Amino acid sequence: MKTFKLGGVHPEEKKITANKSIEYLPIPARVHIPLAQSLGAPSKLIVEKGEMVRTGQLIARGEAFISSNVHSSVSGKVVKIEDITDASGYRRPAVTIDVEGDEWLETIDRTIYIKSDIQLSREQIIDRIKELGVVGLGGATFPTHVKLAIPTGKKAEILIINGVECEPYLTADHRVMLERAKEIIIGIRILMIALTVDKAFIGIENNKPDAIELLTKLSKKDSTIKVVPLEVKYPQGGEKQLIKAITGKEVPSGKLPIETGCIVNNVGTALAIYEAVQKNKPLIERVVTVTGDSLSNPGNFMVRIGTPVNYLVEKAGGLPSDTGKVINGGPMMGKALTSLDAPVVKGTSGIIIFAQQNSHRVAMHNCIRCSRCITVCPIGLEPVSLVQYSYNELYDKAEKAYIMDCMECGSCQYTCPSGRPLLDFIRLGKNKVGTIIRNRIKN
Length: 443
Hints:
4-stranded antiparallel β-sheet
């Protein structure tokens, strides 16, 4: 069974909602749609307070090279344009819309008929993906049209589709693979045309045998698409780890996957690409896993972008009385929400509700130099050293020790027997080193 070789851990899977079919939630009475929903620059607002908008209408244009268009996920009236607290805890600009009905743009094909005939050219596909605001749905939210624009002198040879979903608790990708597999296969073919490649691999961990079986069956007649079952190991969903597991190639330090000839996209992104290219549908909704050990009705919910998290929690049975923390994303890489008023955005994969007894950090003790953090690092870094450099503000040493290569997977902190907040210190140091590097380039 294939996997990446360096480091990794095996946290308890806790896939509580793996057998819960996707449930389409009713539209909330009000949504808050942030202008910054992708890696890069925020989009530029093009609507005004008091304006009536329809579902799928462009409300903010991504004008920077790395940015993405933002569309209204509902129809109704723009009642506010102001800063709101998003999932990061920061105040950021957003459009608040009071819902009135659900009137979609006529250009969007809402039929359930699956369109398999791909009629657009490579350039038209990339333009459509850009126009309709598709970003990576695996967590990083990198604008997909930018990823498909291969730099001069580089060539894509292999498309890798990420169906790993290695974070505990999360099952949104699993359910999408089971319930929208045909559309995903068409989305993969669209991506292959956009990248001009003739080889695609779908990586799925073997704790999802039903998804492996279904996608293998659907791709059997197409020799260019192959499903690759993978050993269960975290963080196999990372681009570098997935490329290593499937192709054996190493992404060099500080470089992008294209250096290996590989481009990686999430299964959810493949579905969004199918809907954009074949149905002319903007990225205005996504599947979100809402789960937790004490939650009465956990599930996988298809929700409109801008839906408040507290609305999802209520639909999942309400906040349990023993709640200690609510996590946006997975338990390994996700972050605690400061407010349940924060809206669902394009990158929201899951909401996890932890009981009070599981929400406390363990007591921190002195480092015992056991080297476990080094052993489990999937990048081959020395977390214990990076922490010391960050704590003592030795940022030049941190940079030379490749702190910017850290993928913030949390494997080091998860395995530390002394309960030390390794990732917290590394994130602080990484942020500072990144600022130093940007200023150096600027000057």
